[in-house]
Write a structure and sequence with these properties.
By secondary structure, the chain is of the alpha+beta class. Helices cover about 25% and strands about 10% of the residues. The longest helix is centred in the N-terminal third of the chain and has 11 residues, at about 5-15.
Length: about 60
């Protein structure tokens, strides 16, 4: 999972929350994995593909 993450997400990663969505606090799954947003957070893929979500269209492109 290459790409940029911000310092807050780095702290979350180091505190054991690497696979926990920054938006809803739920773990990533095979069906809905976590991706990085353009502002460096890890959120569910569905958060970036749902037009009703505030993260819509904000997935980092590798």
């Amino acid at each position: 999972m290459a790409g940029w993450i911000n310092s807050t997400q780095q702290q979350r990663d180091h505190n054991g929350q690497r696979n926990i969505c920054a938006a809803d606090g739920q773990p990533g799954t095979d069906a809905d994995p976590l991706v990085k947003t353009t502002d460096g957070y890890r959120v569910h893929l569905s958060d970036t593909t749902d037009p009703a979500n505030g993260f819509y269209g904000q997935q980092q492109v590798s």
